[in-house]
Write a structure and sequence with these properties.
Blueprint (H helix, E strand, L loop, with lengths): L3 E2 L5 E2 L9 H15 L2 E5 L4 E3 L15 E5 L6 E5 L11 E8 L8 E5 L5 E2 L5 E7 L3 E3 L28 E3 L5 E4 L8 E6 L8 E6 L17 E2 L2 E2 L5 E7 L4 E2 L6 E6 L6 E7 L5 E8 L10 E8 L6 E11 L13 E6 L8 E2 L17 E8 L12 E11 L7
Parallel strand pairs: 3-5, 4-6, 5-7, 6-8
Antiparallel strand pairs: 1-2, 7-10, 8-9, 10-11, 12-13, 14-15, 16-17, 18-28, 19-22, 20-21, 21-28, 22-27, 23-26, 23-28, 24-25, 24-27
């Protein structure tokens, strides 16, 4: 009885056959078994058919377990596994690890049994696949989907707590978001989607009880929603014109309307005398968004003569909560000095003052009194004419987005 061969080309010797050569033939079979766990490199510059020879070694590309495909395809390429003498390929059942190390350049590469469909390989991917007796089946356990140097697209993959480097790029490889790591970070963003009728949420979360969200435009950039600028808590201004002020009962500044030229702007002013300290007051309910801290101010005025001496202005404040008496002392005054501009009826502005503390322990919704004066009694006040105040700009700091 003659020998037969199985689907991997191993010799099945008949009883009583091959007397005196069993050792040689058995060693050949053992080498073939070794080849079944071996590696082969195949250039796919043309179509290739894998073969499994019967009872021999050395040309075992269909028997190899690990197959590396190399070269530039240069066209549509097929890697077949075909029948060999004595046993049809359709009866082969074995696994393969296939590494597609080729360059596709837009061409396709398919691994299949001759006459079947198989599956298409992706450049740079390693596949665990198998011959099921009919065709080559991809297990889907590709271990080259993510490589150190390859460019891949992940689909339907779940990443649990992935670590991302310094940037996230768009599909063109351009910067979409830059990431900066902070040592010992304890606060972060949480993003939540939403059902119909609700908007998604970007939240500040972390170990601390109160966590801000900081959005910082670059340079002169503005934080916007669509095309509208978003209001940001920070420095705000209130302008109080002279008509909104009133001279005090004692040493009050004199309210005047100064005509420049007929039908041109008239100046509604408070005249502060050059020889006597005079005062004017105004009162406002400060916005609830005010942080209850210090304020600064700037005086808008016009000289009544051409003198260029210094005029010294001062401002002081008092906050009254509901039930507080208004008969209280103003806070410490903060003064600013400005020289006459040398031309009558010119508009001029002082520099912005240093910080002024408002007396009375300010609280939300307080009614605040302010007193403006010219310190004409100070020897450093040398402007010889009336200082005609047109108004002041009050600067305050907010710590809320609105006054609700």
């Amino acid at each position: 009885m003659a020998s037969t061969y199985n689907s991997l080309g191993y010799q099945k010797m008949a009883t009583g056959e091959n007397a005196g050569t069993w050792g040689t033939k058995t060693n050949t079979t053992l080498d073939e078994i070794k080849e079944t766990f071996g590696y082969v490199s195949i250039a796919m510059t043309a179509d290739r058919t894998l073969t499994i020879p019967d009872g021999s070694t050395g040309t075992y590309d269909g028997r190899a377990f690990i197959i590396e495909l190399t070269g530039t395809l240069g066209g549509t390429r097929v890697l077949d596994i075909a029948a060999q003498a004595g046993d049809p390929a359709a009866n082969i059942e074995k696994p393969f690890i296939v590494f597609d190390n080729t360059t596709h350049s837009g061409d396709t590469l398919t691994f299949k049994v001759t006459g079947q469909t198989g599956f298409a390989l992706t450049e740079g991917t390693t596949y665990l696949c198998y011959h099921n007796g009919t065709d080559i089946i991809n297990t889907g356990l590709g271990i080259g989907d993510v490589t150190l140097t390859g460019t891949q697209t992940l689909t339907n993959k779940t990443l649990t707590s992935p670590k991302i480097g310094t940037s996230i790029l768009d599909t063109n490889g351009l910067q979409l978001a830059l990431l900066t790591a902070t040592g010992s970070a304890v606060n972060e963003f949480t993003i939540a989607n939403a059902a119909a009728g609700a908007g998604p949420i970007l939240s500040a979360t972390g170990d601390e009880s109160n966590v801000d969200i900081n959005l910082n435009p670059k340079g002169s950039g503005v934080l916007k929603s669509a095309t509208a600028a978003i209001k940001i808590a920070g420095t705000e201004t209130l302008f109080i014109p002279a008509p909104a002020m009133y001279g005090t009962e004692t040493n009050g500044a004199d309210a005047q309307q100064v005509e420049t030229t007929a039908t041109r702007p008239d100046l509604k002013v408070l005249d502060f005398d050059a020889g006597t300290a005079e005062y004017a007051q105004f009162a406002i309910a400060m916005p609830k968004s005010w942080n209850l801290g210090t304020v600064t101010y700037q005086v808008f005025w016009s000289p009544s003569n051409t003198n260029t001496g210094n005029a010294i202005f001062g401002l002081q404040g008092l906050a009254c909560t509901e039930g507080d008496t208004a008969d209280a002392v103003f806070g410490t005054a903060i003064e600013v000095t400005d020289a006459g501009i040398g031309t009558v009826e010119d508009v001029q502005m002082t520099s912005v003052s240093s910080a002024m503390t408002i007396a009375g322990s300010p609280a939300d919704d307080d009614y605040c009194f302010f007193q403006l004066y010219r310190d004409a009694a100070d020897g450093s006040d040398t402007f010889t004419g009336d200082a005609r105040v047109m108004g002041i700009k009050l600067f305050y700091t907010t710590d809320a987005a609105n006054d609700a």
